[in-house]
Amino acid sequence: MGVNVVPPLPSGSVPPGTGAPAPPRPDAAVPSTPGEVRALLDDAERLLSAARALLDDDAAARTAVQRALSALRSRAARADLAAIPSARLKDVTDGRLRLGVLEQAGYRTVLDILDATPYALQLLPGIGARTAAQVHAAAAQIARAAEETVAVRIDVDHREAETTHLLIALHRLVSAGPDLPRAQRAAGAVREELAALLPAAQPARGRVRMLLAGREGRHRAREAVAEVAGLLAAARASGTPLLLGQTSVDLLRPPPSDIEAWSDFELRPPEYYNLLAEIAALEPDRVAAEGFLPDSVSTRVRAQALDDTHRRVSLRGYQAFGARFALTQRRVILGDEMGLGKTVQAIAAMAHLWSCGERHFLVACPASVVINWTREVEARSTLAAYRLHGPDRAAGLAEWIRAGGVAVTTIDSLHRLPVPADVALGMLVVDEAHYVKNPAARRSQAVAEWCARTERVLFMTGTPMENRVEEFRSLVGHLRPDMVPEIRGSDAAAGAQSFRRAVAPVYLRRNQEDVLTELPEVVLVDEWEEFSRTDLAAYRAAVAEGNFMAMRRAAYAVPGTSAKLQRLLELVEEAAGSGRKVVVFSYFRDVVAAVHEALGGRAHGPISGGQSSAARQRAVDTFTAAPGHAVLLSQIQAGGLGLNLQAASVVIICEPQVKPTLESQAIGRAHRMGQTRRVRVHRLLTTDSVDQRMLDILRGKTKIFDVYARHSDLAASTPDAIDVSEQTLARRIVEEEQVRLDLPPAAAPPPEDPIAENAAG
C-alpha cells in the first residue's frame, strides 16, 4: 500500500457542527502497514468514544436540568392554579360544561379539580363519567399552559427544594465553563465524521480483510483511512482530545451540596441564568431582542458567524445578536439600556475578529471606566488589554503595537495617541459615545479622525437616541455620513420602535423590560476608578496620619477632579435618559454634600441622621412623587433603615461600608415589595486603596458566614454578627497601606471608634 497524503480542506471551510470557520486540516501521512493502520484506527475509535461520552454526559446533564425545571414550574403553576376559579374551565370547553355541582361540592378552583381524579368527580350527583373526564382534561390543559408560561425566579431569600435541585443540576454545566460549547461542537463533528469513516476503514486492519473486501471495498478502505488520518491530525493540532477529556471530567464531577450550589449561584448568577435561558427557552420575544429591526437587517445579522474561541463568557441570545450586528453592519451605534452588557457584546465582536486575523483594537472611553474596560477584556476574553492612560501609557502603547490586543485610552487623550499609520485597527470602540456629539469639540474631532482610518467602528451609549435626534445625527455623521439626510425628527415622533426601524442600518437598542425576562431583580456592579492626582495626594496624607476615615473619603477630597464623582454623574445622566429614579448613599456627610453640589442642587434630600423621621419621610415622599427621573441623597445609616425607597431602581453607594449589613439594608430599601423595575446597584470603588483592602478582608469573612449561617435565625435577628471589628479592620488596613506606600507609621493610632467620625447624628 502506497503512502497517500490527505489534501487539506480549503481555507475557511466549516467542519460539520462547528458553526465557525476552522483552519485547514494539516497534511497527514497515511500509515502503510496493517499494524500502523490498526494503531491509527484504535486512536480514532478512542476519540470517537470520547466524543460520544461527552455528548451523552452533556445530554444527561441537560435532561437533569429539564426535570428539575419541570418540577419547579409545576410547583409555581400550582400556586397560580389555586387562584383560578373553576368557572374558568368554561373558557376551555366553550361553555359546554355545567360546573355548578362541582362548586357546590367544594371544587372551587382549577387546582381542586386537578388534584381530584375523574373517578372522584364522577361520584358527584349529576356528573357522569364523560363529564368528569372532560372536566379533568380541561383542568390539565390549563395546568400545562400555566407551566409553560410561569416565570422562573431564583430567589436567594426563599430557598425551596425545587429551586435548590435546579441549581444543583445547573451547577454541573456551569462548572464546565465557556469551553463546553466548543467541546460540544468538536464532539459533534468528530462523531459525525468518524461514525461514517470507521466502518469503511475496518478492512484495512489486516491483509485478509482487505482481500475479502473486494476491489471497491479496498478502495473505500484506503480512502477512509486517509481521511481518518487527516481528521486525527487536525484534532490533535486543535487540542480536541484534551478539550474533550477536560470537559468530560467537569461534567462528571460529583454534585455539590445544597449550600455549595447556592453559594456558587450567588457568586456568578449570570452564568446560571444564561444556561437556564438556553435550556428552558426563556429568551425574550425575538423581535424585541433584535431591537425591532426590519427583517431585511435582522436576517442578515443572524446569518453572521460569531467565533467564540477567544471568548471566556457565554452570551445571552440578544447579546450574541448585538455582537453580530456590530460585525455585519461594521459602523454602528449600540444603544442598549444600562445593565444589558454592551461591554461584553463589544468584547465578543473583537474576539471574533481576532480569530479572523485582526490584531489591534482600540477602546476610547471616559477616564472613569478605563479600569473597568481593561478588567472586563481580560476576564471575558483571551485578548490582552493595555491601559494607554497614566504614567505607564508609553510602555503599554509599545507592547500593544508589538503584540496586539485591546488598547484602552480616554476619549480626551485620543487626539495625542501616537499610533503609527501602518497599525491597522480591527475595530474602534467608543464608549459613552454621546460625549462626542459636539462636532466643534476637540474630542469629537479626534474621534472623527480615528473613524476615518478605521473600517469597523462601534459607538456605545446607554442614552436613548430617539429622544435626542440632533445628537444622533451628529454621531451618525462620524459613522455613516450618507445616512444623516435620512434621519428625520418625524421618525422619533412616531415612537421608539418606529425610530429604530428607520435607522436600523446603524442603530440597535434594547431595553431591560424587553430582554431581561428572568434575571434577578438586583444586579450589583462594582465601578472601579483611579485616584486623580489631587485625590491621591489627599489619600497619601491620610495614610501617613493613620486617619482611616479620611482615607475612606479621600476620593472626594477635591470634587472638581474626583474620578468617583465623575462616574457618579455619568450614572445619574444615564438613568435620566431612561427616566429612572436614583438614590445615592454615602456614610459621610461631606461626601453627600459634595454630590449635592456637583448635581447643581437638583436632588432631593439629603437625608441625615440628625433629621426627624417625619422630615426624612417628607423627602422620600417628594422624591417618589416627582415625575420621571429624580435623585435622592442620603447618609447610608439614615436612609438604610425604616424608609421605603421602591421608587428608585438605581442605587449608587459612594464607598464600601465597614459593616456589610449597612449596604444590604440600604439596597433593601429599594428592592422590596412594590418595586416594579429591576434594581441596579453601583458601588463606587478606588483601585489600590482602602476600598480594595476592605473588600478583600470583608469578602473572606462574609463568605465563611454565608456558607454556614447567612439565612439562619441568628443572622436575621443579629445582623451585626457578620461584621468584623471596626477597630481591628481600621488598624490593619492603615498599617498595610503605610507599608505599601512606604510611609512611616503615624505617631498616633487610628481613632478608637472609626465609625463615630463624620457619621450621622
From TrEMBL:
Biased composition (Low complexity): 1-20
Keyword Hydrolase: yes
Domain Helicase ATP-binding: start-end pairs: 323-482
Alphabetized Gene3D superfamilies for the sequence: 5' to 3' exonuclease, C-terminal subdomain, P-loop containing nucleotide triphosphate hydrolases, Tandem AAA-ATPase domain
Listed name of the protein: Helicase SNF2
Short name of one Pfam family: SNF2-rel_dom
All residue ranges annotated as the Helicase C-terminal domain in the record: 564-715
Keyword Glycoprotein: no
Keywords: ATP-binding, Helicase, Hydrolase, Nucleotide-binding
Region (Disordered): 1-33, 740-761
Organism: Sphaerisporangium melleum
Gene Ontology terms, MF aspect: ATP binding; helicase activity; hydrolase activity
SUPFAM superfamilies membership: P-loop containing nucleoside triphosphate hydrolases (SSF52540)
